[in-house]
Amino acid sequence: MTSELGRLVEVALPVPLFQTFTYALDPAAESIPVAGSRVVVPFRNRKEIGVCLGPTDGVGLKQKAKRVIEVPDAAPALSESMLSLCRWIADYYIVPFGMVLRTALPAALTGSEQPRPVRKTHRIVRLREDLPTLIHRDKAFGRAPQQRAVFELLESLGGTSTLDHLLGGLAFSPSVLKALEKRGLVTVDSKEIDRDPFALRETKAGKPHLPTSAQAAAIANLSAAGPGEVFLLHGITGSGKTLVYIELLREIVDERGQTAIVLVPEIALTPQTVDRFRAVFGDRIAVLHSALSDGERYDAWLALKRGDKKIAVGARSAIFAPLEKLGAIIVDEEHESSYKQGDTPRYHAREVAIMRAQLEGATVVLGSATPSLESWTNALASKYRLLTLPERVGGGRLPRVEVIDLRLRAVKLADTSTGPGTGYSSVIRDELDVALASTLMRGEQSILLLNRRGYSAFVQCNDCGNVVVCPNCSITLTVHRAPERLLCHYCSHQEPLQSTCARCGGVTPRHRGMGTQQVERLLAERFPSARIARMDVDTTSGKWAHAEILDRVGSGDVDILLGTQMIAKGLDFPNVTLVGVIDADVGINLPDFRASERCFQLLSQVAGRAGRGPKGGSVLIQTRVPSHHAVRCALAHDYKTFVRDELAGRLKPPYPPNLRLANIVFSGTDDRATAALATAGADWLRDLLTHAGGEVTLIGPAPAPIERIKTRWRWHVLLKSPNSLELTRVGRYFMERFPVPAALRVTLDRDPVALL
Ligand code: ADP
Ligand code: ZN
Question: What are the beta bridge partners of residue 211?
Answer without folding.
Answer: none
